[in-house]
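Subgroup meeting minutes
Present: P.N., E.W., G.H.
Scribe: E.W.

1. P.N. recapped why we're keeping a running log of single-chain structure predictions: easier to compare across weeks, and new members can see raw inputs and outputs side by side.
2. G.H. added today's entry (258 aa).
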Amino acid sequence: MVDSSSIVWMKTHDGTMVHLMEPPDGETLTVPHVAFEVEDFDTTAAALQKSDYPNITAPGERHDGQKALFINDNEGNRLEFTTGSRLRASSRVVDVFGYTTATGVNAVVNPPSKIKILTINHVGIPIVDRTECMLMYRDLLNMKVIPHQGDGNTLAWIELTDGSMVHVIGPPTTLGPRGDDRQHIAFEVADIEATAEALIEADVEIAEGIGTRYDGQHYMFIYDPDGNRIEIATRGDHSDTARTVDENGFTSEDGVLL
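Output recorded in log:
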């Protein structure tokens, strides 16, 4: 629903979207971003415009009536704030590769894969200064800091009202073979073992997992053909664990800092 030939819109089972962005010049990848949907766009825009966060854009409106603006957090991560989509009718159609035109016939594809992505479980965002980043995510954006369910304290978990999460992740002590993997997206599935089998049948390498987190959440990591780090996860139940968290997301277990 934007004027660009280098973007593809896709959606998960619950309607949450993933936008795949090709380099407009054929070579230079754009900066990845996370889009948060808000109920009151005008109030959100006013609060963001009053803040000191940089590179804010003027609010825009897409072909289907969706409003949006962009801003950077204190670490330079690009964030979008938007309303729901499909606020008005649009005659646009799409082909099998996601290329959009104003008129024609929508392509219908029935993939053979058994994998069913329910929603986006969380996104991983790289940070350096956790205390500073909490001023945006916790205080300005009113997100709930919750105990994380992994090991150590290099990351903090932040929960949205629908249960989806943002994981803000500090710098790693060492880099893996593919470099800094903190920026990633986690897709939620109901059956991770069946999903793993389908991925293996399709010759997709399982880079890590299947693992289990403290709250029973199962997870694994893969890479897409362009090297983007993708997590596949189930829904965990972190509502009733023995872990506690401080205001900056540092998690303790039985009173002992992890």
